[in-house]
Structures
1.
Amino acid sequence: MINAAMVLEGGATRGVFTSGVLDYLMEKEIYLSHVIGVSAGSCNGIDYVSRQIGRTRDCMIHREKEYNYYYRFPKFIKEKSLMDMDMIFDKYPNDLFPFDYDTYFASDMECELVTTNCETGKAEYMTEHREKERLMKICRASSSMPLVSPMVVVDKTPYLDGGLADSIPVGRAVKTGSKKIVVILTRNPGYRKKPVSKGTVKLYKRAYKSYPKLVRTAAYRNIRYNREVELVEKLEKEGRIYVLRPLIPTVSRLERDYDTLMNFYEHGYSLMKRDYDRLMKYLEG
């Protein structure tokens, strides 16, 4: 295990790029001591710590209807969720695509999952080392996109997608004291997030009227995100961090096409394979 921190950006199905990167690293038996995952990056992160090559890919990319986790519109209205989160964070890990809890809990790697506290509007970096149900609940909270997923209550506190408050937690990685930081992004070079539209802000205010601090966090997400990207670019230019990002057009965050997703997954795998020597030179330097 290498003493270094790994930051995994989210992006829903764009996370298949990250799973390709991590699958190659796991095949080479490269494991870093500290993992910080956001949203889909949390799902990738726990599978990396449990050392399950291909698990995230298999959960996210499939043709079989029985594995489909998207609700049809009537079900979406009833459940107030675009996706069947019970399937993803209960049936998947405990039945269809078994998660290796034993390896995860026995690991010396520290895995932090980023969530957004709905009451404070701030990011929290949550861990779990013993309880299976709580681990999956935290991962579910980290991955619960606003407006299309319900809040997740953990320890009597409501949470949503960690990307709202801290999409690229490089600052958190720096605070861990790690001298080496690896950042896996799911957006192309030069990407900047556009301001949230007035219409979307109105939706936030209506949906989360009891959580004004959450609304503020969501409304100004683009400002924080772009500042984090600028920090990443600065540290990368200075040679202080290693960054890998997709070089082909990214998939949409709710992409469903099997071939499109597999192509993006394979791009992450091949890009990491191509860049492996540069990564090792950075980690060993």
2.
Amino acid sequence: MNGLKRIITISLLFVFVFCGASLGAVTLNPPRSPELSSRITLPALTLGVTQADSPRDVALTLQILALMTVLSLVPAIILMLTSFTRIIIVLGFVQRAIGLQQSPPQQVIAGLALFLTMFTMYPTWTKVYDNGLEPYLSGRITAQQAWESSIQPVREFMFRYTRQEELSLIVSMSESPRPANQSQVDTRVLIPAFMLSELKTAFQMGVVIYIPFLVVDMVVSSVLLAMGMMMLPPMMISLPFKILLFVMADGWNLVVMSVLKSFTNVP
């Protein structure tokens, strides 16, 4: 249903654009009586495509398109530069280790990961706002200074959780000179190294989470095999035991506490 609505919306958008290109402008301004005009004022909607008068207009249009493209990628970029990757992968391991495919729903898992990311990244984002965004909005520093002041806390966060092996790998693949200190490491090199480190850490935590539930599956399979019940799926019997084990061990608190403690900058 959502896909159908998206297709209809895009189709209507193309219709409006092409109509504006052919007619010059489309103005939705129906005639109104004098009495109605004196009482009610409605805005007019104008949609159209006009010819560029100078190369400057074309450059401005291209800049707007580039800005819209960057804005569409900003959420993914922000999520990959934070603790979101590790948290959502660990929570996904928990869901699959228990054997629940649709419970809790993926929206709940993603929402929990997002709020835990906001909690863990709060000290870093506070530094970004205090050092870069707030002085820039007040006009005390330039845009270049704001960028340098804002990216520094993010780089410190990524350096704290980037492994030396992954950083050395990306540096060697980039064919750049070997940096002598952290300030010489380019951000374009640091970002993929941080993402690889987060993936490795998340999978290591996921393996530890899988072990207790794997033991339950092995025990249930062995018991069913010993009883000669080979036609009965072991998953059907082990699933209630794994859920009971997870609930009795207060599993969600343990998982969330382990994930939060893996980020040492959390108070």
3.
Amino acid sequence: MVRALPAAEGQRWVERLAATECPALTARRARRAEQSGADHDPILWSHSLGSNVWDMDGNRYVDLSAGFGAAALGHRHPAVLEALSQQAARGLHALGDLQPSDVKVELLERLCALSPFEDARAILGLSGSDAVGAALKTAALATGRPGVLAFEGGYHGLAYGSLAVCGYNPGFRRPFAEQCNPHVSFAAFPGPGDDAAEALSQIAASWPSSSPPGAVLIEPMLGRGGVVVPPPGFLQGLGELCRKRGALLIVDEVMTGLGRSGAWLCSVEQGARPDLVCLGKALGGGLPVSATLGSAQLMRAWGEPGGEALHTSTFAGNPLGAATALATLQVLEQQRLSERSAQLGQHLMARLSEALLGAPELGVREVRGRGLLVGIVCDSTARALQLGRALLQRGYITVPAGSDARVVSLTPALTIDGALLEAFVEATREALGELAARQGASP
């Protein structure tokens, strides 16, 4: 850190941002500042490389967000840049599903080969929200039921299809409720200390009867909802319940998939048999690419190829994104990054627990997660927001999670140097120690 925050050049850019950005985002930062008593103006990114980000004032940060998990290989990975450059030299765009590029076909083939379905088909999109929307449409066509059972704390994006099933914060849905699917209900998402059988029993007992759901949508573990891991056997049992009730199990692996949770697919690792899988974030290596995967039999619900195209998009499967996605998948496999994520994440959580949980004055209640999706659970919203800002001032980028923002979320690149994580543990303990001392000195 060469200039303390808030720094002059960054502040000038923040003022330009505030003059043009939708005020809803500026207001959110103001609320967080009020809750924590600390400034929450953003830093402005200038450039990035690997696990580092530089701001407009020349400060260098360790990015423990990996761009919300999208830069799972790190920023500007050489294989991704090479694929992007080669494809850009050949062509930037094609005619979507009407006249697709060869690289789109190659990506579809690769995704289907890596899917948990023996005979798979895929729908490409640009965002996780796109993938969820396509999965919901598929379920409605296949079952004839408009109803969806989703989970409290679940985050699936904010486009209209996914907004209706977003359990992260009811406030997101409230202003648009009359335009959303009215046949959506929510169940409690169980934590690791809950009993899986009891949680499943409660879901079965409260299963909507007036409009039985055609789909059950769940994250294998909550990401933005607070890094919550369900109890063993829950996802497997949920799939069995879906099959008994005639509903399809849609698993949102946008955050957890492709090695983030220490497995190729977090849900399959936990014993689930999903009917539809949604991928995104890491898939494009930093470019917007997503996919919805299902069996060929299920995807026939869309009708015969000669019929009307019910779901299409100008940029879905665009050549640039398809090329970087192929490169990303190759690196993930060749470097066995799922296994590395599992090992490194386990070590990181052990080190954080050792450093933070033995001192009550630090205000950390729990360290939890799977793979390199890790959450530091604080005793209050203020403590978590203060910690996030204190870490930023020390050169570490983290993201708040949970509907009450009491969790500091870590989703570093799966390629991150372990030494950077070791330094982060020490920086976190120092930051919490200073916050505790400051609060103890207050009258």
